[in-house]
Sequence to fold (648 residues):
Amino acid sequence: MKKTVARHALACTLAGILITGAAGAFERTDASAVPTAQAPGYFRMPLGRLTVTALYDGAVDIDPGLLAGASRQTIRSSLAQAFLPTAAPVQTAVNAFLVDTGDNRILVDTGTAKLFGPRLGFILDNLRAAGYRATDIDTILLTHLHPDHAGGLLAPDGSMAFPNARVFVPKTDADYWLSEAAERHARPDQRALFKMSRDAVAPYRAAGRLTLFEAGQPLPGGVSAITAPGHTPGHTAYLFPSGEGDLLVWGDIIHNAAVQFPHPKVSIEFDSDRQQAVATRHQLLSYAGKRGVWVASAHIPFPGIGRVGVDKPSVYRWVPAEYR
Amino acid sequence: MKKTVARHALACTLAGILITGAAGAFERTDASAVPTAQAPGYFRMPLGRLTVTALYDGAVDIDPGLLAGASRQTIRSSLAQAFLPTAAPVQTAVNAFLVDTGDNRILVDTGTAKLFGPRLGFILDNLRAAGYRATDIDTILLTHLHPDHAGGLLAPDGSMAFPNARVFVPKTDADYWLSEAAERHARPDQRALFKMSRDAVAPYRAAGRLTLFEAGQPLPGGVSAITAPGHTPGHTAYLFPSGEGDLLVWGDIIHNAAVQFPHPKVSIEFDSDRQQAVATRHQLLSYAGKRGVWVASAHIPFPGIGRVGVDKPSVYRWVPAEYR
Fold:
């Protein structure tokens, strides 16, 4: 059988040359030359006057044992229903979102750069694949200062990866993550995050391109900032009016879609204030579910754009955007 | 504001030239130059010894009034839960699937070519984007002879789009769709399909590359054919063993995921035999749900690869594959 297959493959290739005349027609004679590259990690969605592009940074593996707030059985059951491992790390996407208003190119979050290893750090590659250059970005809005959102501000040499951008950071988050006093009082497992935050914004601050904003301060592109604390002290969601429904880019409201949509009371170890994070999740899920707004979410499977279905009070469902 | 933005955009572009030195750096000075292209319509999934590539042909709009078998209220409610229109056409993907075994490149279904207008017919483009040429395909398995599955067999000039492929068609389907007697007795709305079927296979038949196969006859790549009648008389699913779980490419078992997973008794106007189609859907959903096999589905939102969750007896849920 193996020999028959090999002869057949050869015949195919010879016919291929005769018909196509293409250079490199012999590439496929080697049965091992199976194309394996994934499609580029961007996803485009026009929305009214906006063009939204989800950008894939990569994925981290997160131990589901870090989820708490429901019984282990409830958490395991939700994971199993989504065919996810219940006792091994769960692949968790890291997404950023570019919103092009025509006047502004606004990037919400920036991925990890290479802080978290070779499986992540692909925002710049995917931005280029999507038809943009880093120099096209004029505005960066950070949902918070964690390194998987702010790390991508830096080029490999520590300079600004987005040299034409003004970076907007919620002042409450900056007051915490850029503070050396806060670092000294932080939980040991969180201390390393402070230096990463300071490093990420440093060249923008030096260039006069960093804005720490407070509630009510106007942002570019008609965007509204929505205070969404708990995951971090100043965690913020951004609401983009499109003329045909709003887009809510909500950062880390969800870390595990399979568990936290049906059980919003489940929080994750990384939350600064779990009780506040749960209250904020309930609020934003309720808001998104009632209004049917489009949601862009950092850690929901790529592209992380979708809407929130309401099954019953406090029980939600993720409805991903359809490719078109 | 508008003027400020324009000046800013110019400054960005000038900086872009200085930094990148790229040709065409002025393209972005025009605020209307918003990149709008979607990411290429392929999706790669390694599975054991297989490399599976979903290929997007495009989308058709299907009137949800063509769904029947549950109350209008039930159907409308399921559509609304998925944020789909309840009284207007629903975007319905057309997917084909390439399974590369290392020895064989097996394409299951071929899309529409240009039979259904400019929104479809992109299988060959997406095949190339995925790193394959049409001449690389050695085997084509058709789930059935409808034109959105067989139409892509033809190049625009009517010749073989896949000149090195042997085309396998379930004999029961060929006995019907290639028969002039059957055409004369068919429902008026289905008559046009017969000529499309005959045209699609004609050059392969003329070249001795058409195989009409019967149950039990061996297929390339260790694939098993699973008789799955109802949608058409000879509708067939294909089971690919991977060494790490099976892949079931099941054709038109589902036309509307939002409605038919929770309500498998709902069938669609296009089914040749609705009662049989419902029975087959129950069988394959039960099989896929119990075994947790990967499923590749022609009309589920692209990429159309996922698994079947079982909520309770005869109530199912689609769990899409995650991008990685």
